[in-house]
Amino acid sequence: MISSDKVARVTAAMPFWLTYILPPLVMLGAVRGGLWVLLPPLATWYLFSALDVALGLNKESADPQTEESRLFWYRLGVMLWAPVQFVTLYALIWYLGHSDHLNGWEKFGVMFGTGVMTGTVGIVYAHELLHQSNRLERNLADWLLAMVLYSHFRSEHLLVHHVWVGTPRDAVTARYNEGFHRYYPRVLRECPASAFRAEAAMLARRKLPWWHRRNPFWKYAALQLAMLALAILLAGWSGLLFFVVQAGVAIWQLELTNYVEHYALTRRHLGDGRYEHVKPHHSWNSAHTATNWLLINLQRHSDHHYKPDRRFPLLQNYEEREAPQLPYGYPIMTMAAMVPPLWRRIMNPKVRAWRKAWYPDIEDWKPYNRASTPMPGRAS
């Protein structure tokens, strides 16, 4: 176990700052055009995956009792990303709207690369921030999510996913044999409605109507409209197109990650709509070093669901006997998910082995495969 003193060192935090290479890479692509526009996806998907091969697995865990005051450099790196992304995004929108040296495909490449940045880093950092209790970090999370038109993710993630993961009520728990191309439109359709119902239910328990000002969906709408309006103000309709395309790429990346994180890992139904508690073996884990730097330990997903408010440098690693392990980091796994036959060939044997190890007494998995086991708890 890594001691608190070692965790607190700035040198220990610096690998997680490698994500700050992305804004200059996106800017470079916009200025130079040509193959330079490929730098952001090449860096995030391939460079970090190559570093995984070179560096191997990191199975060490920090002392979970480390005081928050000793995590300054980690927290700073996450919180600074919001203003850096904001400036980068809108500077690019203005620049592309007033430049004519790029052809259509090059402009699309810049938009795509920007979405890689706002999805791979922006949404992951928003995820870290929205799990914290202080207002500043939650507000930064809301700003980051508004920049990709996915503000409802905060409500859906906190009030639905973490409560009902591994059950039919959680839309983002991918079903066995459900390919990503079927999964994706389903979650795009179901998650916003599920998030709204969860917030409305919370208000109803306080005897307040859904349209009350405390409903965060009003804030979500205002922030997203402001982001869209600023894009139009800076570059007209081309600015709006740029903004929407990068948001679409970012959302696609988020839901690819969601697909990988819990594919076919279901909680046991105990009868009468009751399910077992969430345990480490209900998330796929990855200890690959470099992609955990890129994704601020998001791949230590089992511990995140065990302790949702635990800050990322303190997330614990789990061994094979405690939680199922992915063969590669998220970038490679998400690329595999885009090819369903390849995905099934890699993952279905692992799912079957997981079922045999953890639930050898369950003989009929069809209800779990179809998400047709009873809905848990009261509606949220």
Automatic annotation (TrEMBL):
Residues 110-334 form the Fatty acid desaturase domain. The keyword Transmembrane helix applies. It is an enzyme of class 1 (oxidoreductase). InterPro entries: AlkB/XylM, FA_desaturase_dom. GO terms for biological process: lipid metabolic process. Keywords: Cell inner membrane, Cell membrane, Iron, Membrane, Metal-binding, Monooxygenase, Oxidoreductase, Transmembrane, Transmembrane helix. CDD domains: Alkane-hydroxylase. It is found in: Cell inner membrane. It is a multi-pass membrane protein. Its EC number is 1.14.15.3. Its main location: membrane. The keyword Metal-binding applies. The chain crosses the membrane at residues 12-31, 37-57, 78-96, 108-126, 220-245. GO terms for cellular component: plasma membrane. One of its GO terms (molecular function) is monooxygenase activity. It holds the Pfam family FA_desaturase. Belongs to the fatty acid desaturase type 1 family. AlkB subfamily. This is Alkane 1-monooxygenase. It comes from Salipiger abyssi.
